[in-house]
Design a protein that fits this description.
The protein has eleven helices and nine strands. The protein is an alpha/beta fold and 274 residues long. It has a single domain (8-212, 262-272), classed as Rossmann fold (3-Layer(aba) Sandwich), CATH 3.40.50.150.
């Protein structure tokens, strides 16, 4: 039987992206969701070597101005601000932006401007100017990938960087198996890359690995820190998750950690303008 050959150049990758996102396991990423995660998000990212890995690829220059779209608690904003002329940090969450400002004050950084906004907003009305470099670090949380890429590309004079998930990304498949729920992870980097190719953008790709095993002050903090993956648990799922967390936590060095390390893979995708 002859199989039909599909030309990937004819696939509407934006629509495929939208379809996959509609089936994802993660909760809707709205302002309340991120406001509620600001404190724990800042703490967990501070324990990661992620920023060093990304900046090693970027090789920031002192004369750059940088747009950090979806900056979160400033995991890249802070080290970039210490290496470039100016950073504009944009996020939908006012609590995340408050965390950025607090970290800047603590480190004596005065070249960061914060703006509250979304991918879907009118960037000109938000006051987002064209920068030398635009980056979206683990923040392509959008229902219209093509439109967001066009906005990010239009906001950069020289280079654009996108960091996104590879495979399961930050989701722990073992937790999903423990509660008996399938993991429908978000569309990963290959969707981004294929769409960029379709748009005529020949991008570079580098895969990085981020070891992660966060320290917790209590088993309850560990339980709360992984709940975000599910977007809500029924009583039976919550019972199973608590049991799993209890079985796999160990107390060492004055803190609680999971008994296994995880390696989260990210794709750094970038291209030069002109």
């Amino acid at each position: 039987m002859r199989q039909e050959v599909i030309d990937v150049r004819l696939i509407d990758w934006n629509r495929v992206w939208q379809t996959r996102r509609s089936r994802r396991s993660s909760p809707r990423r709205d302002t309340d969701f991120w406001d509620g995660r600001a404190i724990s998000f800042a703490k967990s990212r501070a324990e990661s070597g992620y920023a060093d890995l990304v900046l090693a690829i970027m090789s920031p220059r002192t004369e750059w101005t940088v747009l950090d779209m979806g900056c979160g608690s400033g995991v890249l904003t802070i080290p970039l601000a210490q290496a470039v002329t100016r950073v504009t940090a944009v996020d939908m969450s006012k609590e995340m932006l408050a965390a950025v400002r607090a970290r800047c004050e603590d480190k004596g950084i005065d070249n960061v401007v914060t703006l509250q906004g979304r991918w879907e907003d009118d960037w000109e009305k938000l006051g987002i100017e064209v920068h030398d470099v635009a980056i979206a670090s683990r923040s392509m949380v959008t229902e219209d990938l093509r439109s967001s890429v066009l906005k990010l590309n239009g906001a950069a004079r020289k280079q654009v960087y996108i960091v996104t998930v590879v495979g399961d990304g930050p989701y722990d498949r073992r937790l999903f198996e423990a509660i008996g729920r399938p993991l429908n992870a978000e569309p990963d980097y290959i969707y981004n890359y294929n769409m960029l190719y379709q748009m005529g953008i020949l991008a570079n790709v580098a895969l990085i690995e981020e070891p992660r095993n966060r320290a917790y002050e209590s088993p309850q903090e560990a339980f709360e820190s992984v709940q975000w993956m599910f977007g809500g648990l029924n009583p039976r799922e919550e019972e199973r998750l608590r049991a799993y967390v209890g079985d796999h936590l160990v107390f060492s060095g004055g803190c609680w950690k999971f008994s296994y390390d995880r390696v989260i893979r990210w794709a750094v995708i970038w291209w030069k303008k002109g």
